[in-house]
Structure formats: structure tokens, C-alpha cells
Amino acid sequence: MESGFGAQSAWRQLTDLMGRGRIAADAASLDRLRGLRPAVPLAIRAASARALAFARPPAALIGFFAEDSIEVAAPLLRTAQLADTDWLALLPRLDAHGRALLRHRRDLPGAVERGLASFGPADFVLRYDAPAAANDLAEPTPPADIAPVPHLHPVAPPPPEPNAEGGFQIADLVARIDAFQKQRDPNEPIAAAASEPPSYFHFDTDHLGIIRAVDGVARGALIGASLAVGMPQGEVRVDAVITGALRQRQRFAGARLDVGGHSDAAGAWRVAGTPQFDAESGRFTGYVAIARRPRADEEASLTPRKMVSDSLRQLVHELRTPTNAIAGFAELIEAQLLGPVAPVYREHAVTIRQQAASLLGAIEDLDTAARIEGKALELRPGPVVLEPLLERIAQDLAPLAALRGTALDIHPMGDHAALSDDRALERLLSRLLAALTAAAVAGERIDIAEAPAPDGQVAICFARPLALSADGEEALLSLDGEAAGPTDAEGAPLLGTGFALRLARNLAVELGGELVFGEDLLTLRLPAAVDETVAQATH
After folding, report:
1. For the domain bounded by 382-527, which CATH number is listed?
2. Taking every annotated instance into account, which residue ranges of this chain make up the domain Histidine kinase (predicted)?
């Protein structure tokens, strides 16, 4: 048990049980871990620390991991949430690397920050211990908490006398290096630096999602990049999963981050992050996150569409089942099928049912978008008469139109019909009209009328609200949910105006048509149904 696989297994079990509060992190348990540590590889110890990074382990266990190398201590030091007294007791046990990690955090209490500051120059000065004899040219031994200076060959001039505080001037160090360069054999090969790329790095953001601190890789490409922007930002591209989590102040994991360029940060990463909140005010202060290279069975690039769509469809499946259950229970309470319910709780049940229905609509939109992306959308074209479909959608959007003080004005279209899948076309028109209605202001009317179309097509034009009239197509498609009206109103696009417009445009293409963004109008063109099939559809 003290070596090999047995030691590793015991290590994993003990750290997991202590980290999750199943057993006490007392002196006996920690001594047991110390006995196992020499037989457990560094990679296993680091993996254990990462597994406990967001589990809120006790202070004693964090202190134990802090005794280890920085690769093991870093995940816990970056995420630990401790009381002020526990932090202050831990600081003296950390080496300079550990305290440097804590200095990058923005969520530590003021007392802890003052405790870090009290170490002052001790964490930053290059130490030098004077040799026993004046002619002793051996290199000084740095203290345990200071990273050693790379070894230089003995040089002719004796080392300078240290000052009273134990440090020496930068000019002295430069002089030593210069003397070494003069003495070194020019034909002596210089050892190549380690070329193995880093396998992970950490970063912190502020409350806006802007990356402010990076540790583990070159930070030039990452500093200043925003997690709130899904479009490419210089060398950086952020997964939409991260931008969505930032808007909701939620944790994310398995998200993708692409970094271009030629630094050691370049390439594809998998990212997990945890939101941080101020202990006193509860305000969101930013994320602490860790990025790792993808495993051999993973692909972290943002470009493979098939994998992205499959992952999204799996997420949709996992969301749909509990949401349906919530809606079902709310309906049972509302209808009092489980027994008498007080009116106030019935009102709550109605609200829950309505919100669940809105969420289910958004889930179906995500499923549709994933099917389009993965070329898996199933369509059954048939004749769809346009005017009755538009009137039914306008009736469903009446509460949203009343809230916005607007109206949908559908001009007569007769029996004009499109050759289209009825469900896909209904989703296209409902999301498009919801986005336009949510963007309208009081007194505006959204006109919907038949438009001229080439032979074999039918077209509908929609007036653009003033809030959307000044923007071009790319700007409209990039709008988030907060840019064009309320998204919490009944019928409004829960996933935002930009998503609704992108979904409508992509559905139009899948249905064999197009959505054209004009200066004042949006025009939807679709294949026209022949007269015989229209007659069958209207009877």
C-alpha cells in the first residue's frame, strides 16, 4: 500500500474524502498523506489538486497541498475560499511562487492582501549569501522560498559584498554576467532551452470578462481579450459557451479557446472557469479559470462543425427532459390535480409554466441550430399558405406587442403559399417576428406584406423597427439579447435578437430561400407552391 498503485489509490481516496468533507482533515490523516506522497507521482498529485479546485476543501488540506511543488499547489491556491484567519496562517507556509499566485487574485479579503504586502521585498529581491572566505568563488545558495538563479561558471572577479539586507545591485549582476561572457570559450555549446510546450495555464478576468492576469504561458495575446465577445479578437477566439456563461454569471467547463500566433500560448485549449463574488456585497468580480491542452480523444478547435453540433444536440437533450418535468409539475399544481392549492401558489405555478415554456422554445431553437450546423435537419416540404400562418403567429405575440406598445399589421396576401416544411417555416416566422416586435418602441407598427418575387418564388417583406434600421446585416446578426428590447417578456426571443435573426436566415437557406437585409425592410423569399397543391392545402 505504501508504494506503486496501492499508494496512488490510497492517495486519491484520502484526498477526495478530506476535500469533500467526508472525513476530517486532522493531523493523523495528513500525516498519512505525507507518508504516501513520496510514492505518488507528481502528475497524480497535481491531478488530485485540480479535482478539488472547486470543492471548497478545508484549510488544513490546502496547507498540505501548499507544501508541495507549485504545479500541485497552484490549482488550489487560485480557487481556495478561506476565512481571513486561515489565509493569514497559511501565508508564512507558502514559498515565493505560492504568494505570487495569490497576488494575481482579485477576490482576496483586504486583510489577506495586507498580509501579502507585509512580505514586501522579501519575495522579489535576488538573494546572495557571502562565501566563508574572500577568495571562495562558489555560487551562493538562495533561500528555500526564492527561485535559484541559473548557474554561471566561476568568474574571475570575486562576488560583491552583500548589503545589509542581503541583496545586491543589478549592476553587480550585470558585471558578473559580462565577466562570464568574456571568460567563456566561444566554441562551447550553449544548452538549448526546454522546448516542451506548456500543458495548461491559468487566467483571471475582471467583472466585465476581460482577461487581466495570465500565468503559465506568454500573456501577450491573451491580456485584454474579452470573454464577452464571440467574434475573433486579434489572435484569440472565445467559445460561445463562455460568453453565455458570463452573461448568466455561471460556471463553465469544457469550453473552447483558440489562440493564434507563435507563442507558447498558441493553439487550442479546453477551459473551465468559476465566477467569483465579493464576500460582503455579493457583486460579481470576475472569473478564475484554467485552460488545458485537449486530450488525444478530444478536439478543442472551434472549427469542426460536426463535433460542435453533436455536442450542442447532446446538451439540448439533457436540458429538454428536466425542463419538461418542471413544466409538467407546474401544470399539476396549477390545475390542483394533487390537491387544493392556495391562490398565491397557483400564480407561482402559472409563472413557472410560462417560463418553462419559454425555455423549451429556446431549447428547440438550439436543437434546430445544431441540426442545421450538422447538416441533419429533416424537412418535409409541402404547401403552406402564408397569411393564416402569419395571423396565428401574430396572435401568439399579442402580449409582447401590447407590452411594447406596438402592433403587427398583416396586409392581405390571398392564398399565396410557399413550398416549405410547415414546422420549420413557423419557427422561422415566429422567431423573426418576435425579434422585430421586441425591438419596436411604443407607437411603431410593423408592416408585413407580400413583396415582388421572381418566377417560382413567393416573398414577404417586414418593416424594420427604428432600433434596427441603422445597422447593417453583420451588426444585426451580432446583437445579443440586451441590445434590442426585453428578452424576459412573453414571446420575446430568449436567446437574443442576433440569435433569432441568424436562425431565421439559416432556416430560410435550408428551405431553399433567403432572408435579405435591406435598408428599411427584411425580405423573406421562399419557393412557391404550385396552384394544385395550394388548393388542396386550403380545403
Report:
1. 3.30.565.10
2. 314-515
